[in-house]
Amino acid sequence: MNKKWVLREKISDDLENQILFYRGIKTEEGAEKFFNPDYKRDLRDPFLFSAMEKIVVRIIKAVENNEKIVIFGDYDADGVCASVIFHDFFKKIGFENFKVYIPDRNREGYGLNVAAIDSFLENKVNLIITVDCGISDFEEIKRAKKGKVDVIVVDHHLPPEKLPPAFAILDPFLEGENYPFKQFCGAGLAFKIVSALICREPFKIIPGWEKWLLDVAAIATIADMFSLTDESRVLVFFGLEVLKKTRRPGLISIFQKLRIDKLNITEDDIGFLVAPCVNVASRMAHATISFSLLTTASPEEAESFSQKLIGINNERKKITEELFKKVDSDLSQLSALPEVIVLGDESWPIGILPLLLNKILDKYNRPVIGWGRGDASYKIKGSCRSNGRINLVELLTEIGDKIFIEYGGHAVSAGFAVKEGKISDLNKEVEKAYQKIAYYDIEPPVLWLDAELNLEEIDRNLLNFIGRFRPFGSENPKPVFLLTNLKVHDIRVFGNGGIHLEIGFRKNSGEIIRAIGFFMVERLDFSVEKGALVDLAASVEENIFNGYSELRMRVVDMRKAR
Q1: pLDDT of 109-127, one tens digit each?
Q2: Is the CB of residue 167 less than 8 Å from the CB of residue 129?
Q3: I want to staple 349 with a disulfide (CB 3.0 to 4.6 A). Which of 125, 142, 374, 450 is the partner?
């Protein structure tokens, strides 16, 4: 997909000020907090949340009275890590009358469900704490309340107009919530609650123990691609430090298997290696595998869980690549692409759909809808991705209950479940609905370039300079630089049939600077040959492998030299 390269206006000769400015940091005080996070200074009082006092009092009461508690966590990495935080807290204080319940992604779907609530009522549960879900589960929470079960909702999704009748709701986006920072993931909110609980009732815990929970809070924040600014930046900054010292056998095992240098772990290691393994459990099996990996105290169990997750993730990548190649081949043979690409098969696992659709959207820049079942006992479900040309919620609403059991989501990302026997009508209904809804002109996606560099400036000093801006993530992306008119010294393709690209560029000194472009082969619309001149949009990074450190560029985009 072609991107529009835009070099940011130069506002300072000082590269540090230039990068800070375009991340919204324009004062010395802001720069100090950015470069030197302070745990006590920068994490606000959790009782600034309007519902925190009520939540803390209720949980302490449940602990003191040995009430039965259920932690109901979402099945993604954020929900799993938030559940781990509550699990570790209750275990630490010696409270055992609790259970963690994570629903089956394919059989139960997202959020609370009536069957689960009924089972909690039958088992005399007194308190349900939802994490990373619950804000939209009105009927289910009403049912629990009718059965005299209190529900505390801990969620970070946008609230609906009609809030559920919960005992208390902690959601930064609630109308009237005055907490100064909004961009917490579910695990971040769980950490704030545990911090408040320890502040109010020390439970004979060594002061500062809660910091050991920052490893999973960091994993969740990175996996959920939440804003790495303000408090979330602090959680990840110190979470990475805790990950270097983590005592969790599951993390130690998976680091070893993924060849992650624990002492030099980065947000990239979490985002590209660890988080996909944690997330894949719910997509291809059940999220309890990931939960067990993060909570087991047994090195033997840790070995088993990490091996299983890595195996599942490798299978997921293999299936996704095979399906993408097939779909790509089929689409390339069409004389004209449809305005909305619709594809699927009952054999396709539901869990791979979002990943597959993202690849198709990236290459073809068209709204895409995919569906699958994978298991005869599952409903046929689908995912949708849009490039902004259409609002997916409008499209799905126009189709409505003609073929859908349920549907919802956002303008550019949505999902649905299909009535039995109706999947054959999906293409036709999408075409009809497309003719009735609004569509929007879109520009090519903009690739912002922080500054222009030449190859001679790519060195260890620049690498160390860039390292000060870590951890990188949403709203604090890696600086991307423009390098023009580079001559290709050598080139090779590698990985899974040749999908990745490695190019060498020679400096005047004779030093070769390598540039890695993951999945770049299938994205380029031109062939790259030795001696060719190219322009790069790239970040600069350190690659540490088997104890060897290499300075290299990470290609974001590439074009013929202009």
Answers
A1: 889 999 999 999 999 999 9
A2: no
A3: 374
User: What's CA 83's distance to the chain center, in Å?
Assistant: 16
Same domain, 432 and 454: no
**Would you say residue 522 has pLDDT above 90?**
no
The verdict on 455 and 429 lying in the same domain is: no
Residues 174, 514: Cα–Cα separation, whole Å: 48
What kind and span of H or E run contains 555?
strand 548-560
Tell me how far CA of residue 83 lies from CA of 129, 200, 215, 323, in angstroms. Answer: 9, 21, 13, 33
pTM of the model: 0.91
Question: Rounded to whole angstroms, how far apart are CA atoms 515 and 552?
Answer: 6
Count of domains forming the chain: 3
pLDDT band at 2 (very low <50, low <70, confident <90, very high): low
In the numeric block, the tokens 């190649």 are attached to 325
Tell whether omega for the bond before 249 is within 30 degrees of 0, i.e. cis: no
Domain assignment present for residue 321? The answer is no
Q: In this structure, are 155 and 293 located in the same domain?
A: yes
Query: What is the DSSP secondary structure assignment for residue 323, as one 8-state letter?
Result: H
* DSSP per residue, 217-285: HHHHHHHTT-B-SHHHHHHHHHHHHHHHH---HHHHHHHHHTT--GGG--HHHIIIIIHHHHHHHHHHS
My answer on whether 354 and 405 are in the same domain is: yes
Q: Which residues of 483-515 are buried (b: 16+ CB within 10 A; e: fewer)?
A: beebebeebeeeeeeebbbbbebeeeeeeebbb
Tell me how many degrees the CA angle 158-164-167 measures, rounded to the nearest 5: 110
Q: Could you tell me which of 437, 249, 408, 198 has the C-alpha nearest to residue 339?
A: 437
Alpha helices, DSSP H only, in 93-160? Answer: 114-122, 138-146
